[in-house]
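Hi R.,

Here's the input for the manganese (II) ion complex you asked about:
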Amino acid sequence: MKGALVAEAGDVHWLRADVALAAAARRQVGQLARGLCLPEEQVARAELCVTEMATNLLKHAVDGSLVLRVVRARGHAAVECLSLDSGPGIEDVPRALRDGMSAAGSLGIGLGAMGRLADVFGVHTLRGRGTVLSARFWADGGAPASGPVGTSGLTRPIGGEQVCGDSWAVRTVDGHGPDALLLMMCDGLGHGPLAARVADRAREVFRDGHHTSPADVLAEIHRGLRGTRGAALAIALVDPSEQRVRLSGAGNITALVVADGARTGLLSMPGIAGVQLPRPRTFEAPFPPGAALVMHSDGLSDRWKPADFPGLFPQDPVLVAAQVLNQAAVRKDDAGIVVAVHGRP
Ligand SMILES: [Mn+2]
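And here is the predicted structure with manganese (II) ion in place:
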């Protein structure tokens, strides 16, 4: 029996902060929300929330962007709005969440309002370095029940491109513990539409696959990518009942487990999925409660350290994905990241 899709990269709308941001974000989020048939009251809340996010970025942030997308999880769908910037950070988050007015003149203004408007709201800030906000609006009466491992991911195309050659997906898997998940991170060689086709194809094969070990899934996607330009690809199996991660990868995908402030790297082999794959090897690391698995393409620098992100890793996985991408992404490539956090809804 094949696993059920838990989450995957879909269409992601990146809006850079400029004078037209608020209007553009409002229009885009309205379209996404109506596309999911959210009630008008909820559409209005989503529109107000992104307007607040946009206004906040324009007034106070350095190098800000909004990210708008539909996320799907176990048969449920939501509109998700992310705000990413490079500073100056929020001085006192709990206070800003309580009362936007008390944070007047800083990035925190309106935070309380956003938190009340969203079904689920999250914030992570690094003083002087940047803030990520997430607001989610669920269709069909709310978030699905989830297991002990939460997942999310994010992609950003290289400047000037509309489509991204990096892709990620998460599915359930039989033959392991009841809450085990398979994660895929794929970086189609190069960028632009041809790279995006490779990444989309990898996602399809992953979604339709029935193998249960990372090495077998890697080999299956390798076969499915024959005839394309190929990809760097890594597959991880996260099993909370065994408290272990197993990973098979080919090419340049960074994969590491953050636990107790330290990072354990999981090696990939040289090779190009779809073109040339050596005999897969599998590497393992402990994955205790509180640990986070982070996999990302070479569109992010691998020099970051957990200590650079105080307070981030116990958070909602979407904040982890967004803040690591926000801080570590290089501008000269597509960027993609997928995250699994043990012990969070
Ligand atoms: Mn790349």
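One thing worth noting: The longest strand covers residues 65-73.

Cheers,
M.
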